[in-house]
Amino acid sequence: MADSMELSSDVPPASAALTAEFVAQQSSSFDADPKLRLARNAVTRSDVRDVLMRRDVSNSFNHHYSVKVAQECKVTDQKRTGRCWIFAALNVMRLGIMSKFNLADDFELSQSYLFFWDKLEKCNYFLENVLLTKDKPLDGRLLQHLLKEPICDGGQWDMVTNLMGKYGVVPKSVFPESKTSMNSVWVNRFLTAKLREYALRLRGMAGKGAVEADLHKAKADMMAEVYKVLSVHFGAMPKPDSKFEWAMTDKHKAFKREEHTPLGFYRDLVSTKADQMVSIIHDPRNPYRRSYSVSYLGNVVGGDIVRYINLPIEELKRYAMATLDGGQPCWMGVDVFKSYHLELGILDSGMYDHDLVYGVSPGMTKEERLRSGESLMSHAMVFTGYDKRDGEKIPNKWRVENSWGDTRGNKGYFLMTNAWFDEYLFQVVVNKSLLDKDLLPLLTDEPTMLPAWDPMGSLASVGRQEHQQQDGGGGLRGREGNVADPRCRI
Questions:
Q1: Which residues are part of the catalytic machinery?
Q2: What average pLDDT does this structure show over 6-10?
Q3: Which Pfam family, giving just one, matches this sequence (predicted)?
Q4: CA–CA dist 184, 260 (Å, integer)
């Protein structure tokens, strides 16, 4: 074979290789810089975030706010799962029940109840998507995207709406956590393998000419197996229309007992209804004042689509403030693993001085981070307050109820600066009644469809990152962690 054989154009030329001369030059340049040598000494012996942190900035923060909801709750803990979206939604909804029954601040609605139904519905949704795409190439981008993570822990607000409308809610005392609901790694791994197996089986049947009835019969048999697996892991599940007894003791030690069904409990006692809310996003890649959805994203077949209204970031602040001014907490979605300090519970884009330590600083805009895959929604939390100085229109900081337990931040509450809001917040959920009238048609129009892999769908597909970051230096895929690693996202 000739030495001059022409190489493929997608192979870098040999002339692009790093040379010994380049390495020697860079090493000499580094050693000649005393600031870099000092940085190396510090970083090789300390947590890099402690070295990067600007002490003047971290010392300037306090957890006092000019506006807060009337009653705050004890912070919840999603453990080793990517259920942040469920926790955040139920944290919004529990306040009305606590007020109505004068309950203590540790009252919770059952996250594991919705988690079970979400797992079951997502498996069915995935298999239906497999049937819808049976004629598309298996090695194409769409099928590979669907197969990559057929059942994750993550989700979106409209997926909460679907679950609550179909299954209702129950108090946590009625359906408490199981080992699996607090650590979903094993069940996710097992069902991921089974769902991929089912997908190949259904596609094989379709390729041999199986009729729709036979395909759906096979799918029903598969879902029966899924139900058995989930029931083993989560326990005996209350049915949406079956009665349960709820016993409670209020803050004055008064005892009360009531009988409800999950659907009735949601209908009669939850004042903040999921379907009364609308998701507003900030996506600088796409035109504002339009509605968007993400292809193949959802959990309940026949349920609501995931719908967003895209607005400038200042509008998201205005709607979040209006929600809090009305005494209600505000659900939101962010890229939580950027410029944050876990133990202090601080989210601030100016907290770390990269240039001082490295001589290099991050340089991308929010739009560039989205386009390059550097940023996406990775976690859902809840605003419970903000601080605004006299004479100013925009808050300088926001109070955040997280779901990573009460040992971080201010007893589990985090602080988000306005600058961080600009860069890493992507979504707020507010009551439809707050929307400007000219936006109301966007609630029912035909949305622009984004591709299945678009970052605006990431909160519902990355429930795997959350746990790894919480334990190690953080909390939603190699970013919320990998639910299928040990610690997961959204």
A1: 84, 379, 402
A2: 67
A3: Peptidase_C1_2
A4: 29
